[in-house]
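Morning run. Coffee first, then this:
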Amino acid sequence: MFLVGTASLASASAPVIGMASAQSGATLDNAKVSGNATIFEGSTLQSSGYSRIHLNNGARVDLSAGSKAQLFSNRVALEQGMSEIQSSTGYEIDAKTLRIQPSGATSVARVKVEGDKQVFVTALNSPVNVLNKDGLLVARVNPGLPLSFLPQAGASSSFDNTGCILNKGGAAILVDQTGNQVFEVRGIDMRKAIGNVAHVTGSVDSSATAAGGASSVVKATKAVITKKGGCASQASKLGASTAVAGLGAAAGAGAAAAGGAAAAAGAGAAAAAGGAAAAGAATAAAVGVSTTVLVVGGVAAATAAAVGGAAAAGSFSSSSP
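And here it is:
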């Protein structure tokens, strides 16, 4: 290791968790480094050029030029720039209030922090999970469909999503069209929406156990049909039904009911969105897209303006794989 400067005493006393290769130079715990450098638990690395970190647990962490991150044995906290990880040990990237986790041992997650809050996530070869600060699954990012995320002010349980409403085992479920997730919908009568695409708003009930193979339970306050039909293929894929038979009225059905397609096309759709939709629209405008994909767990997600493995999150140097 070639050093200019002195590593901090805090770093020197912390456990060694890996080695970094910074051929173009970097700053490690306020010391200039070039070549290989020892990484301690909690070390902060700011890269001048492309840098690669090999951790003792087998995880691989890449940083693009100009990136800054704090490294731990189980995660990397990305403060600025872009990082990429591959790990079979559950290693994750923390960016702002989000936790980004590859779904498998060969999954590669690429994350870019832009501005004060915005985070781009790209799955290079297999799905990547994005969780909010409370550990709630916000979205599952699929290869070829990068998403942009923006944590929202206010409740961390807010929900605003559109998808096919199906009947699975007597439970109403919403199939997220882009986030590749399934939510059980409770709180209002969803029978009129079964078999149709609907816009559902409400909150995520993290204390409830979901049925129908769903990842979580949504306590809906309103559901508006935005498209009649078109859900047969989703039903077949999930072993669900587009028929109402066996689905009972939810508790509190009088609070709101699924609307018709005509109402959804007009002012009814805007009313259904409420505050969450307004926040989502701001997110979409901020990332240069016209449609907000979802708001789950207080985090808005939108389809990134450029689609492709590296397009949404920039690109690493030619030294990276």
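The first strand starts at residue 2 and ends at 4. Good start to the day.
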